[in-house]
Amino acid sequence: MQGSKRGPVPPPLRLDGSSLSSGELARLVSESIEDVALPEEEPPLPFSPSVVAKQLSRIGAEAMLAEDLRTELLTPEGRAQIPHPTALEEWEARIKDLALISKLAAQLWGYLGVGWRWYVSFWRLVLFAVLLLPGFAQMAAFYFFSPRMLRSIPYGVLPRNRLDVFLPRKEWRAAGPRPTVIFITGGAWTIGYKAWGALLGRRLSQRGVLVFCLDYRNFPQGNALDMLQDVNTGIAWVLRHAAAFGGDGESFHLVGQSAGGQLGALALMLQMQQSLTRQPQLGASPVWDPTRIRGFVGVSGAYNLYALADHLHRRGLYRNLFEAIHSLEGKPMLRELSPTFRIRKLGAAVGRRLPPMLILHGTADRSVPMEIAIEFVAALKEAGVPAARLKLYKGKTHTKPIVEDPMRGGRDELMDDVLSQVLGQQCHNLQMPMLPAALIDLASWVCPF
Q: pTM for the complete prediction?
C-alpha cells in the first residue's frame, strides 16, 4: 500500500474535531509552557574509551558475584519472584518466542504492505541502530550481566506479561526504602519492548530510584484493549510487590514514553474514573488504586490519536494499521482511546483527583508533533489537574531525549526532569559519554523518528 502525498502537520483539534486557530494555539503555548531557569550550558565532556572500559570491567566483576549481590539487594519475597528456569527450558522458550515473532512479523507486514515510505523508514532505522551499536553493546553488557538488573519477571499469565527491575546500588538501599518509578516504553504500538527503557532505568537506579519497566503485547498480538489490560496488570503487580524489591511502598511515579505515554495516561484516568464512580470502565481492568500514584511523566506521548492518524499515515504507519490497533470490536475508537479527549469528557470531577502531571516533548519531534502535547496540557489545566506542566525540549526529536542524549553524555535532561519530579527537588547531573559526539550526530540525522 502506498502512502498519500506529504502534507503539513495536522493542527491540534477540539473535541468536536475542528482545528484550533493559530491565535488559540499561541495562547495554549503561552499558558502551558512552564518557565524553566536552565543552568548555563556546560562544555561537552570528551568521550573516553578508558572510562567505558572501567565501567564494563566493573559490570564483569559484579557478574562474578551476581547471586551473592542479589541476595544482599533483595528480600526473601523479592527473590521468590525471580524465575529460575533450566537451560533446556530457556532454549524452549527462546524457540517459541522466535516462532511467535516470525508469525506476528508476517501479519504486521500484511498491514504495512509495500509502501516506499515504510521501506525507507525501515532502512533508516537499521542504519540508526548500526551507528549506535557500540553504545547499545555497552547497555547490553549491563542488561544481561549486572546483578542490579532483574530481567523478565512475570507480572501476569498472558504473553509478554513480563517486567525488568533496575535495583538501586547498595549504598542507596542502605539509606532506606526507595521511591519507585513504573516505566511504560513506546514503540508505535507495534515494535515496543521493555529493554527500550534500559538507558533511563539504569541511570535512575544509579541515583537511588527503584525502576520497574513493563513489557506488554504489541499489535498484532494484541489490540489497544489488550495493551491497556497488560499495563493495568503490570501496575497493579508493582503496587503489590515493590516493597519486596526495596521500594518504600508510598512514592510511586508513572512514566510513559511515546505509545507508553498514551497508555499510561489513559490507564490512570480510567482507574480514577472507576474509583470515583464505582462503575466498571472498559480498559480499567484489573483494578488498582490510582491515588497511590504520586505523579505522572509523559515523554513524547501520543495523547490525541484522532489528530495523529493522518500525520502517521504520511510517515508510513498507514491508517488501516493505525485504526486496526485502536479498534474495539472491529470499530476504530481513536477519540475514546485518546487521553486528551478522555480528560475533556471526564472534566473536573476526575481532573482534580489526578496527581501532578509533567509533560515533556521535543520541538523537533517528527513522529508526534509538539502541538499534541500542548493541547493535552491545556486540556489537563481546563479539567483542574493540579500541577499540570509542559516542558518543551528545544530542537529535540522523538528519540533524542531517550536514546541519543543519554549516550552523548553531559547533562541528561530527561533523566534530571524525571528525577526532579520523583524526588520533589531540582536535580542536575552530568554523565560520561558512551560514544563520540560525531557518531551520535550522524545517527540522529538518519533516524526516521
A: 0.85
